[in-house]
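new request in #modeling-help
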Amino acid sequence: MNAETRPLIKPQESGVSTVAAMRAVFSRDMKVAFRQRQDLLNPLLFFVMVVTLFPLGVSPEVSFLREAGAGILWVAALLSVLLSLDHLFRHDFDDGTLEQLVLQPQPLFLLVLAKTLAHWVLTGLPLVLLAPVLGVMVHLEGNSIAVLCLTLLIGTPVLSLIGSIGAALTLGLRSAGVLLSLLIIPLYIPVLIFGTGTVAAATEGAPVGAYVALMGAFLVLAITLAPFAAAAALRISLSNS
Amino acid sequence: MAFDSFTAFIAMEGHGPYVWTCYGVFFLLVAAMMVWSWRRHQAELKSCRRVHEAADGSGRGSAQPTPATFTRVKVSQD
Amino acid sequence: MSVLNASDVACAHRPGYGALMSEPILQATNLQCERDERMLFRDLSFSILPGTVTRVEGANGTGKTTLLRILAGLNDAWSGELLWCGKSRNWHREEFLRNVLYLGHRPGIKALLTPMENLRALVAARRPVADTVLRQALSGTGLDGFHDVPCRRLSAGQQRRVALARLLIADEPLWLLDEVFTAIDAKGVSAIEALLQQRAAEGGAVVVTTHHELQLPGMRSIKLGEVAAQ
Amino acid sequence: MWQIFHKLGSPKWFFGIATRLMPWLLAGALALLAVGLVWGLAFAPKDYLQGNSYRIIFIHVPSAFLAQSVYIMMASAAVVTLVWRMKLADVFVKAVAPVGLVLTFLALFTGAVWGKPTWGTWWIWDARLTSMLILLFLYGGAIALDRAINDEKSAARAVAVLVLVGVVNIPIIKYSVEWWNTLHQPATFKLTEKPSMPAEMWVPLLLSVLGLYLMFGWLACLRMQTEILVREQRTRWVKEHVLARRAG
């Protein structure tokens, strides 16, 4: 038998490192997003609009806004992230990129983590950057705005990570958007509570270190567990398609 | 007995409506779950039976299903 | 003929060793798949040998795509046994994925990216390939001049060709190709047929589903749809 | 070992066991609930603080207790679904999720009605009630996801992932809601936690909790049997079962 007629089964060590593969996934998502820049603005506009509804719908009084401001901003940020989650896997699912992602030899949960990170950089991070402006508009004080931004900085990645599970579970279903919200909102409650609670504590002048540390713990927990669940959910959803 | 009379038992010193509403809704929902689950079970048994009886029938050739002839069905105009 | 002992045969992990031609690269035993309460197939057994092209045959709805997705590891809703080089595929998933190339009927091409970017992203997950090689591959599928045009401006056939460009540089020993001739013109079809044949001659194993009448010398086939008739 | 495991997971085996078990479960449930609730309603002494309204405890606590443990049971079954792909675990989750939803609703409803004479308002953002409300959402989400996926196996596995994620979150939710509660309104006095409850109160409470557990067992068996019939309709044993019942 001729040596050339034997296909070489590739040895274990060959191929691309997991980090390189994650970087490739991340940069592709960024590239795709920046080819459609106007879509990046949508969650931000939504964020601003929801915040605007509160002074109009409830009261423009400084005292009310100062007390409710952190909560309003947090709820609005949560809803914007929720709104953008539907796209996390949807386009990849429709064009078949997701199949290829699942068939990559690298651990799927790490690739999902890279995708989720890209999602956060494209939606969560801009919200954090915009928050100080809106914080001033709802009459929050300087210190409170700083703490609010800090909690959003730690909290929005958690929202993206938990959301990735819901997005993966509802992939390819009818009315996936509404279903996604139903599944995910209850899981968002602890982050919301601690996000706003920390700002409230800061407004009263209480030390916030412990709460921030606790939110950090949420983030660590979400980073370690959510990608596994999302990867499992993706396999299930693809299996069904 | 913690109450002096039946009327006192019903009234529960003014808390009667609350207590009895709760118990009422509790029994209603638990009973509804029981009845509904039971009826669904019976319906499913029945449908399984129908499926298998139909399969048995055609297998033995006793009750042949009508062959597909695609003849038009007469509909009276009354 | 060289003398090989048992550990050398079949998928050794060291470079330089390969599967013997007679050793199936993929072996399915009593595969069964049920979808939406409908039995697609059961007791399906076959083996895929290196150096062969295998065509999955069957009418619409007999589960050709599903079978291919099961083989690729995209569909988990099956029972039976699937051996990859004599080992359980599910327990050697990473090694298996390293060695298999799957092209679905959704080609995995991002409309907003250019053919070059798409091809680079698809290949980069598996091995580093120089851009010049990628360009050659794209040119080889007749996409000269379109390398840096966003894919949404390309026709359906051209988009498929971007995905097919992977085949020109792929070194995976097992190819699973779903409806590979869709949206490809007659000239392209015969070129792809030649490509598959060449791949088989190199020792690769190719599994295809297609409605197109594929006739290659030495082609094997898996027939689906007989369960439904029973 | 695996043989036993597989036998335990076999729908046919379960169907037989459940048929034999169900009369006992139902009888036990009715007896315990009757004794516990009559005792609680008519014979247990009045609470010195809340008066007679506290008698709602004999249904509120069992419902709340069971609502939470049903979710834990579903999560355990979800592990079995994902790891061993046992059909019976899928069936269990699907069959009991609506029961859990109803029990959670009952806990919420009785809590709200109890709140009126106690706090003077129907709803209060009390830590327990809020946690229960979130549990209701979790149940609702699981049922909605199950309904949305056509393929049974995929639905079971997707719901299993969701329930597991939920069960990891439940302690976090509980903790954060309690923290939030102390932040906003220090609890004046809680509905259920009494420093010490006399035996005439906790014995009937225990009886009704056990009674509702047995009732849940009966409902779970019945609903699982129904679900098994749906799934295994074409098998030989189902055929024998349904045709034998017609003859007998």
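bot summary: Residues 19-240 of chain A form one domain.
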